Amino acid sequence: MQGPSGFAAWVRSRVVPSGTRLAEEARERVFQRRWAGSEPRDEELQKIADEFFCDLVDTEYQVYLDYEDQCIAKAIPIALTKEAAHRYPATVHMVRSAVDAIAQSEVPVTERLTRAVHILRPFFKLFEQSLAQGRMTRAGGSAQQHFEYLLVRLGYAGQFETQRVLNGKVDFLFPSSTAWTIDRQRCIILSVKRSLRERYKQVFEELGITGGLSVYLLVTQTLDEARKDLTTSKIDQLSNQNIYLVVRDVVKNTLFPTAHRVLGLTQFLFRELPVRQQIWQSLLEEMS
User: Strand order of the sheet with strand 188-193?
Assistant: First the structure.
């Protein structure tokens, strides 16, 4: 039932669309709710960049939850298919036992339902546990695509690359891998995560780089999530690794108003990034 090759993951792969499509659906909902289906004007987007990005991330989470509901609704029908019987015989046997219990017409209806519920209880318990285990990762997996959309709308098209492998894979590299090979100290690395949790200790190792570089870590969690996750010790650890943390404006203003190495998203987009752009632009001019 559980695990990356289990029945629940298989159902999810059949029901939940790709991360790209999840991001598109989130944008469609936000555009419809805010602008009657149209996209915002550039000047308007500049004023609400943080709010817009957070809305996209949070809306996609809701989109994903809606698809999870579909997974639960379709789990039994999918379990009764021939393909499921071939792949997951034990799981299918459980479901068919419940179906057989309901089909016993000589037994009172309430007793049949009671038997079926008893049989299917572990099925749905394990199924929902499996969905929950991968929820935060999958639901926030398209934050990179939302941020890329925002960067393009703010005029940075052609000035960054995504999912580049340096030593490890990085989400955003400014301005290009070619520039990186020439002078990496004038480039910027940005990694996007849903949360830090306990992985903050390995951030540098995950990026596969050494010190002395401009590295930013964008964490998309909400204020309530940040209160529990972004401890002083974690912030200090990131600072020791020379990593700037980028958070939602409300997280910056509420929890870290005086922390110089914790940047609000608006601060990063409209103060930090333009300054860094001047540095990498000079490199691009030297390369041309």
Answer: 161-165, 169-174, 188-193, 214-219, 243-247, 262-264
- What three-state secondary structure class fits 192? strand
Angle (nearest 5°) at CA 227 between 223 and 231: 135
- Residue 79 CA from chain centroid, whole number: 28
Residue 241 — pLDDT band, cuts 50, 70, 90? confident
- Look up the CATH number of domain 156-287: 3.40.91.80
pLDDT at 139 over 60: no
CA dihedral 30, 34, 37, 40 (to 10 degrees): -90
Give the residue with greater pLDDT, 159 vs 204: 159
137/157 Cα distance (integer angstroms): 27
**Which tokens is 230 given?**
């972004």
pLDDT one-digit tens code per residue, 265-276: 999 999 999 999
The residue extents of the domains of the chain are: 7-139, 156-287
Average pLDDT taken over every residue of the chain: 90
Find all residues with CB under 8 Å of 237, minimum gap 6, and list them.
200, 201
**121-150 as b/e: b if 16+ CB within 10 A:** eebeebbeebbeebebebbbbbbbbbbbbb
Do residues 148 and 162 make contact, with C-beta atoms less than 8 angstroms apart? Answer: yes
- For the chain, helix (H) and strand (E) counts, in that order, are 16, 6
Angle 109-133/7-15 helices, nearest 10 degrees? 80
Three-class DSSP category at 1 = coil
